[in-house]
Design a protein that fits this description.
Helix content: 25-40%
Mean pLDDT: 88
Radius of gyration: 17 Å
Structural class: alpha/beta
Number of helices: 9
Strand content: 15-25%
Number of strands: 8
């Protein structure tokens, strides 16, 4: 539910298993970001969220600190270095998350982990900002990664590498995208229409009915 009282998404019954890649598909305003925000504990909800069978009574307290990592559609980055952005003052590994986000080559070409990204990432492209935010999320080593259209600014080959990398890591991902290359690699695609689930299944089965939503 949004701050103004409107309902972003309703009647969603979704089970995500460890290691799955589940992607949300729908037009702008269909409820994708609302659902991800609720799962991240960033938005009030009236339904039930269960974690390994146990009901989550306080989503903000339980989900946000360590269970779930959330990457927004337009992520924010710090005005420091690559390392600063990935570690966030924690003693975290950089190499694994950076490689997992397929940012390694970009970071080395920029001067390495201690290279400055500029004021709020001004030296980076849109795709690099998205992957830097993704590396930061992966570094937190949470059980669930929520990714709101993090491949929107990537070219096709980089996007394919990114989803393949997350697969290799065994990361459990619930994301939102409209790109066929990502949808084809998902275990399940959840189609949202006007805030409700219209269809669920592998993209091969959904494509004949919903390909008009994918780009």
């Amino acid at each position: 539910m949004h701050d103004d009282g409107t309902i972003g998404v309703s009647d969603v019954d979704l089970e995500v298993r460890r290691g799955e890649l589940v992607l949300l598909l729908g037009q702008v305003g269909s409820g994708k970001s609302s659902l991800l925000s609720a799962l991240a504990g960033l938005m009030e909800h009236t339904g039930d969220v269960r974690w390994n069978g146990t009901e989550v009574t306080d989503a903000q307290a339980f989900l946000r600190p360590g269970q779930v990592a959330y990457v927004a559609q337009v992520p924010r980055v710090l005005s420091g270095t690559f390392s600063d952005n990935v570690r966030l003052d924690h003693p975290r590994d950089i190499d694994g998350p950076v490689q997992g986000a397929r940012l390694g080559q970009d970071m080395e070409e920029a001067g390495g982990p201690h290279a400055l990204v500029g004021h709020r990432g001004v030296r980076l492209s849109g795709g690099q900002v998205q992957r830097l935010a993704l590396a930061r999320a992966l570094a937190a080593d949470t059980e669930l990664l929520l990714a709101d259209d993090v491949s929107s600014a990537l070219d096709a080959s980089t996007e394919i590498e990114l989803w393949a990398s997350l697969r290799e890591r065994g990361t459990t991902v619930v994301g939102a995208t409209s790109k066929r290359a990502a949808l084809a690699r998902a275990d399940r695609v959840v189609v949202l229409v006007d805030g409700q689930v219209a269809d669920v299944g592998p993209w091969t089965g959904l494509a004949p009915r919903w390909s008009h939503l994918a780009g």
